[in-house]
Amino acid sequence: MITNCTNWHAWLDTMPPKPDELYVVGDVEVANPGIKAYLTVRVPQGINPAILLLDLHLYQRPGDWIQAITCTQVRFTRVLPPNATLYSAVEIFHNGERIAYIDKIPHIS
User: Fold this and answer.
1) How far, in Å, CA of 46 to CA of 52, rounded?
2) pLDDT band at 109 (very low <50, low <70, confident <90, very high)
3) Measured between alpha carbons, how far is residue 69 from residues 20, 29, 64, 74, 81 in Å?
4) What whole-number distance in Å separates Cα of residue 15 and Cα of residue 62?
5) How far apart are CA 68 and CA 5, in angstroms?
6) Domain extent at residue 66
7) Contact status, residue 92 vs residue 58, Cβ threshold 8 Å
8) Closest of 103, 108, 76 to residue 12, by C-alpha
9) Distance, CA of 26 to CA of 5 (rounded, Å)
10) pLDDT (tens digit per residue) in 66-91
11) For a tag site, which of 8, 14, 16, 69 has the least CB within 10 Å?
């Protein structure tokens, strides 16, 4: 179970040469250092193509791990197809609940 998710950031790299890339990063507190976090594209996506929906997944690696609240960083990168709509927001979900909303996505160009 997630206790805290913070420091969510997203940015679009639109510098030449193409293709453009979207980056999303955030910090997630987990129960032990053996838990890895990753983001996947949510299926189905919403009705607005300018808002990317992502799902946060947690994976417990095998082995014995000390039970201590630990912060782990999660990252997501997406290469945008030519002439794709540039994202204006990102919503992140875990177990069906929205845990983060990023509505300021700077363009680095």
Assistant:
1) 8
2) confident
3) 36, 6, 15, 16, 39
4) 40
5) 16
6) 5-108
7) no
8) 108
9) 7
10) 999 999 999 999 999 988 888 999 99
11) 16
- Per DSSP, the three-state class of 56 is strand
Residue 108, token pair as written in the block: 């680095």
Q: Cis ω on the peptide bond leading into residue 19 (within 30° of 0)? A: yes
Burial of residue 79, with CB atoms counted within 10 A of its CB: 0-12 exposed, 13-18 middle, 19 or more buried:
exposed
pLDDT in tens, 10-46: 999 989 888 999 999 999 999 999 999 999 999 999 9
Q: What is the pLDDT of residue 82?
A: 86
The total of structural domains in the chain comes to: 1
Global pTM value: 0.90
| Secondary structure E strands in the chain | 5-13, 21-30, 35-41, 51-60, 70-79, 89-94, 97-102, 107-108
CB 26 within 8 Å of CB 7:
yes
Six-digit token string for 106: 């700077």
Hunting for tokens 């290469």 — which residue is that? 79
